[in-house]
Amino acid sequence: MAPWHWSYRTVYLVGFLICAGLLAYALYSEVYLGLIPCPLCVFQRIAFIWMGIFFLIGGLHAPRGNARWIYCVLVVLGAAWGVIVAARHLWLQSLPPDQVPSCGPGLGYLFDTFSWTRALNLVFSGSGECAAVNWRFLGLSMPGWTMIWYVLLSAFALHGAVHPQSPRQAARTRGS
User: Is the pTM of this model over 0.85?
Assistant: First the structure.
């Protein structure tokens, strides 16, 4: 069955599985490849967790009518956050070495010591660890790939909300 004929439930459960797979790879790259995530990497993971949660809830609930847009909007909001973080990360990676900010304290220290708004501001001002490119696939660094996945998963969520019918439901509608 082609994905454009999948039901809302199937689209959203597959979206959840994709998010889970991406997070599993992030953990694999941390544990087995030794790639320690920088603060911006952690925020990109949070975006996938957010999206995965609402893909899963939307897939299990499979609402009818306009209620399906609630899950779609929540998934797209997570993706928008992820795109913003990934764009900032890519910008830091594109800086010449002499313009890279110095490495800052760890994420735990920032949130323990400063208010949430101040800690977020410090994270987004960047640090040297976020500018390092330790992994590439087909010429793109990890934040480049995450940005692509945020866009693809947003489109997938929108497709599920716009075309929520299963093939059986669509055939019944056409046959009436």
Answer: no
